[in-house]
Amino acid sequence: MTGTRLGEPRCAIDREINLMTGTAEHGLHERGDVGIVFDNQNVSHSCPLHADGCCAYRTRRADDRRYLQSMPPTAPSLAAPAAREGLRRALLWTAGPLAVFALAVVGTHLLVADLTVALWWPAAGAAACFALHARRSGRPAMILALVVIFAASVIANFIGGRDLPIALAYGAANAMEIGLLITLLFWRAADLRLQSLRDAARFCVAALIAALALGLVVAGIGAAAYTHDFATVAILVAASHASAIMLIAPFGLLPPRLDTPLHWVEIALQTVLLGVAVAVALRPGSALPLSFLVFAVLVWAALRFPPVVAFAQSALLAVTVVALTIISGSRFLGADLAPVDLAVTTDAFLCTIAIFTVTVVSAQYSDAANTIAVLHAARVRVAAERETSQALRLHLELDRQREDFLAATSHELRTPVTIIAGYASLLTDETLAKPHDEWVGAISRNAARLSLLLSNLLAVAGAARNDEPSADDIAAHELVDGVLQALASVIDEADCTVVAPIDTTPRIFADRRDARHLVNELVSNAVKFSGRGGTVRLEAKLVGDDVVFTVDDDGPGMDADEVAQAFDPFYRAPGAAMSSTPGLGLGLPIARTLARRNGGDITIVSQVGVGTRATLALPAARAGQSLSTDDAG
């Protein structure tokens, strides 16, 4: 038995398996134990799987008669994954709240003139990213994250100079915004990653809706507490929060990393060019509308680099835009704007950057993932076809060796068997005393059986080699008469009646030896299974372009499953095996092979308790049809 190659462990072993190879016995007892046997080497290996998937091999030779000691499976170590998970959670629940609090404090210092709302609120994006990561630990962790966001927002607003009731209201509004965002993202979805254009659209729509809901709440609070214009505050707050969420939250929705190389030199070059584009297009005092340059360079990152790189560049670009807006005062891209208009324009520009990056990155990731999947499938298909080709070549070589062995062995055994049968025939003609005559009869019968077996083996080898049949014009009645004469002793011994009303008209065009073998096989099978006192009926008729031989017996018959397997090599029906009916299960498979190579076929119809009908169809001889080269000579 050939096992896996070295370095390819199999770990799905649930029960004990005993393997015999040569004189070696190999026991596989527990999950994790693998026994491996190599071609042409009586060597066995025991392989316990470790956590890293590697094996520790122990080898013994087949001449070592001791039973292979199964090495106990090594329990996989869970310490490293558990430690990494613990570190991740500690970092999440430490850095997450601190980031939300710090960015909220920063936001309270980015207030728009004449208003109590911020130019940009990056804490919203940090809170969304924190909540998205916390959600992976379950619903309780998600609820706790919302509570932490509420607390951090309240503290930051209170420190920023807002009254405690206003800080509490803003904190509740921020927590509500993130809760609504999570609900919309995962409504009827077990998970969401930015892996396609559809995912990107869902994320952007959810961010806009959540930010708009927050803007309405904060506008209501501002209108009640500070008499601010409701519409102005709602638009400004919604834009500032939406841009922050769409720029920072994607770090919590990163898709799985693709197996693509990172080109650090290209990333560095593109980053430098992005800095140049920002300096040219967004520098304070610039009077030219060159903001499109930023997108021209940003699309390079979105199409070529991993998503995390593109999202990081977009976030840094947003920080740069906000900083330049604050530095330039009332001017944005060379235009003099009122404070509110400046804030709205800046937030709209940031939203444009965010939507552009998210959609392009997600669409590119989808295309790249599909391409990688197609290439992987192609490689797998090529590897499978290569293995199939190798297996086919090996199969053909084994078939050739088997055929050569069968042919050589059968030829070598035929001579002594013929001699034995000949001398047994001579002794049969003599008058022998009992029990010597019985002994000679047994020798004759078994020599005949052995001769038939050798003929079958030779037929198997010849059919497998696709030897060209030597076709001849044969009269059907002459063929049947010859077969019945050859089987006369078998028919008499079985006390069976064979009825063969054969018309002299039908003639077949087939190999004479194959045709004789075919009819002989069908008749002998019918006689054998009819039993003593049975009746076999043989007919031959011209049907279209074929001569159809039908052989009916009144034997025990076969059920549908037995008929379906009747032509499988070495198959014997259970009834035949139980009644010790002689045979190896090669007769019908050989007969069908011979029939098909002569342009015919064999079919069987049977009914349990009624009998069996075997039908042989062979091409009918046509007038003027030429004989084979051998026959013509």
Written description of the protein model:
The protein is α+β, with helices and mostly antiparallel strands. Helices cover about 60% and strands about 10% of the residues. The chain has helices at about 80-110, 120-135, 140-160, 165-185, 195-225, 230-250, 265-280, 290-305, 305-330, 340-430, 435-465, 475-485, 490-495, 510-530, 560-565, 575-580, 585-595, 630, and strands spanning about 15-20, 25-30, 35, 45, 60, 330, 335, 470-475, 495-500, 505-510, 535-545, 545-555, 600-605, 610-620. A five-stranded mixed β-sheet has the order 9-11-12-14-13, with helices on one face. The relative contact order is 0.05.
Round the mean pLDDT to the nearest integer and report it. 79
Largest sheet: 5 strands, mixed
* Distance separating the two termini: 51 Å
Number of strands: 14
* Rg: 44 Å
Looking at the structure, what is the overall shape? rod-shaped
Strands ordered across the widest β-sheet: 9-11-12-14-13
Helix content: 55-70%
Query: Proportion of β residues?
Result: 5-15%
Structural class by SSE content = alpha+beta
**Total helical elements:** 18
Flag low-confidence runs. Answer: 1-76, 627-633
In a few lines, what is going on in this structure?
Helix content is 59%, strand content 11%.
How is the topology of this model organized?
Layout (H helix, E strand, L loop, with lengths): L16 E5 L2 E5 L6 E3 L5 E4 L11 E4 L17 H30 L13 H14 L3 H21 L4 H22 L11 H29 L4 H19 L15 H19 L9 H13 L2 H22 L2 E2 L2 E2 L2 H91 L6 H29 L6 E5 H11 L1 H6 L3 E3 L7 E5 H19 L4 E9 L2 E8 L6 H6 L8 H5 L8 H11 L3 E7 L3 E9 L9 H4 L1
Parallel strand pairs: 9-11
Antiparallel strand pairs: 1-2, 3-4, 4-5, 6-7, 8-10, 11-12, 12-14, 13-14
Helix pairs in contact: 1-2, 1-3, 2-3, 2-4, 2-6, 3-4, 4-5, 5-6, 5-10, 6-10, 7-8, 8-10, 9-10, 10-11, 11-17, 12-14, 14-17
